[in-house]
Request: fold
Amino acid sequence: MSIWEYANPVKFLRLSERVLPALWVISFACLAIGLIWGFFFTPDDFRQGSTVKIIYLHVPSALMAINAWFMMLVASLIWLIRRHHVSALAAKAAAPVGIAMTLIALITGAVWGQPMWGTWWVWDPRLTSFLILFLFYIGYVALWSAVDDPDSAADLTSMLCIVGSVFAVLSRYAVNFWNQGLHQGASLSLDKETNVANVFYHPLLFSIAGFVCLFLALVLYRTGTEIRRRRMRALMAREVRHA
Amino acid sequence: MPDLGKYAAEVLSAYGATCVVLCVLVAATLWQGRKVRAELAQVEKNQDGKGAQDG
Reply:
């Protein structure tokens, strides 16, 4: 059995129908555990007070905003190299989810930054690269809807995705590259000294798992919708040709 | 409800905004999916009907 079998739309739909119910349940369960645990049962931070509870939203959404773009990059490369329609449709399906994740990261970051830094926004390397990533997402979705021919749209958006990957990398590593600005380094680290304290870490892991599973569930479902939409267009085009 | 102290507005607005964005995303995804499924079923039904007539 090969992974390329799932480039067949029928096989992909069959697999996603089987996997989706479990994925929805796991994502909502992890989100509920992570957020309820984090919101109700963790203490305030000695410096940040209760704003530390925003970490359960901000870190997972920022993580998914970047990883969604990388998933789109892989799917776009598969389209450009192997011309599998399902991969192009999966990239298209992931973009609105990525927009939502980036928007959540930007909103929660601003709301968290205001009391901690004294400002909603600053042109810090990480914040700026995140804003540019958000604009790339918008441009990606706009380009898909601006081009009528789906194959040309997939080609153009794949190229845009490759270019935008620079900003996805910058969003992740801006703090390390420039070592300036207000934004702190990564909250999660293998180094115990720099990793977030255990009392916040465990609910954060559940929250991250919830966001990851929710992303996967949404992308699988939306890819199925795109496959059906494509089939509908093909059937209607055939009907017009026969008329 | 935990005591959020002087940052209650910030914490609650972050949770509220996230909840709104995620709910809109999930609702729009499910609504679009159902709509396309129904439309595809209708198109397939029409095609089957025409196929039977032609046959």
